[in-house]
Amino acid sequence: MQTGLNSRKTKIIVTLGKASSSIEALVKLLQAGIDAVRITTRFLQGEEREKVLKNLREAEIIVGRNVCVILSLREGDIRIGNANAGCQLSLSVGDEIRIVTSKYSGNEPNTIMCNNPAFPNMVRPGDKLLVEFGKAIFTVTEIEGLGSFTESFGSYNEIPSVIIEQDSGLERYKRSKPKTLKGQKVVHCRAENECILENGEPLNFLNTSNFVCNTVNNELEDIRLLEWAGPMDIDIIIYKQVRDKEDFDDLLSFATPPNVKRFVGIQTKETAENPKVYLKSSDGCSIGRGILGVETSHSAVCKLQKSLVSLCNKMGMPVFISTQVLESMVFNDKPSRAEVVDACCAVLDGVDALMLTGETAYGHYPELAVRALHKICVEAEQYVNYAEQRRLVYESLATPLSPMNGICYFAAEAVEKVASQAIVCLTRSGKTAKAISRFKPSCMVVAITDSIKTLKFLRVVRGVYPIFTDTNPGKDNENVAIGLCVKHEIVKSGDVVVFVGNKKDSFIEGTTTSFRIITVN
């Protein structure tokens, strides 16, 4: 098991795919320290999703550690991959590419399948296409198969027509419109850089207006995924590629499994410019830097990321960052210096979790990517100014504080004054632990809970280390809670802890009325 799991505050989420779907691979990832897994239609289809979840449950039993399961909706409206399914496609600068949208059985080189049948109608010669948010750039050179009717037969007036067919004894009247010829529509492109394409890569338009107008609303796929999620014990659903508030409200109106947290994906220009509107209807957010960079600009993403993390910190909402966190580790066993700096800056800003995508879905070193990110987070957390972050959160709140917020704030303040090793609380809903985390204490928040569902959600809340107990501690809650902390090697004899709760059964919601400073015996 990775050392330091009980002291790392920033959480790690991995995207599951072919490189991380076996029980063996999942056991390694759990031992490396993952806190959550993400399921997406981009890398897992139909029965593959059920199989990987079954493998995850078995891996959790082997390792003895439960993790949060996240489902992403609208994971890219347009996706492409090698027409020779299961194989990578290597491209060089200037290579000619054929993009087809229906079943392909030919043998032409550099042929790519697109999942959206309307794609040929969305583009025109000269358009720039971004693959994997800029990993590859294609220029459209020709669209084959459009307008072929008039090219082959001339104008409509010249087409001979049959008014009546005597053979069958049935009358057929002349068509009011020409019949569309059946045939494969092919979009011809030129590669502008060297790249290696995997299957299921997202495709976007460099022209933002094109992208917005032509995004396909996959409501049917959303409904099917939500129906599938019902019996699968999903913990968080992320609603991505939200176009406006009406679109988001429509998505939220679909029935979801009970006790599932609903996050908004901040990816579009609309959601990035009006985040409060969407966060008020959410339990948290995920910042998708890929599409966000397409809809705004690469330089704007940095500012937007920092402001969104700050806003979520002040609102007490978990916030994730995804897209190309350690992208070079898809093929390399070490991250680049730029990626290390990027991840460090996110940790210093106060992000709750960092999400790995291609690194673990199809990368060559999924376990090493998790271990590298763990090390980056642990080292970066040593330089976080917790007092300053707490001050900013406190100043953003209306005064007087609610009793629970007041208790949690002063408990976090007390940590530095008495050199506490941990803040310990008992929680059934997770609200107390989340409230303490909001005020950024410099030590870990140990949340003792009798709910597996709560434990799995708290896995993605920054600075919270959840522990499950199936017994009711009653009035002896302090000793039971501290005993569990000692068992999990979070504290030892002689350490000082801050206990948040009261003398009653603190699993009852609304009983957070005091905190006490205790020395572990």
Gross geometry: elongated
**Would you identify the CATH H-level superfamily of the largest domain?**
Phosphoenolpyruvate-binding domains
How many domain units?
A: 3
Helical content band: 25-40%
* Number of beta-strand segments: 22
Which structural category do the helix and sheet elements fall into? alpha/beta
Parts with pLDDT < 50 across at least 5 consecutive residues: 148-181, 208-217
Order of strands in the sheet with the most strands?
1-2-3-13-14-15-16-17
Query: Radius of gyration from the CA trace?
Result: 27 Å
Helical region count? Answer: 19
Main sheet makeup:
8 strands, parallel, barrel
CATH class of the largest domain: Alpha Beta
Residue-averaged pLDDT, rounded?
Answer: 85
**Which topology of the largest domain does CATH recognise?**
TIM Barrel
Tell me the strand percentage band.
Answer: 15-25%
CATH architecture of the largest domain, by name, is Alpha-Beta Barrel
Distance between the termini: 27 Å
Pfam families: PK (PF00224), PK_C (PF02887)
Keywords: ATP-binding, Glycolysis, Kinase, Magnesium, Metal-binding, Nucleotide-binding, Pyruvate, Transferase
Family: Belongs to the pyruvate kinase family.
Cofactor: K(+)
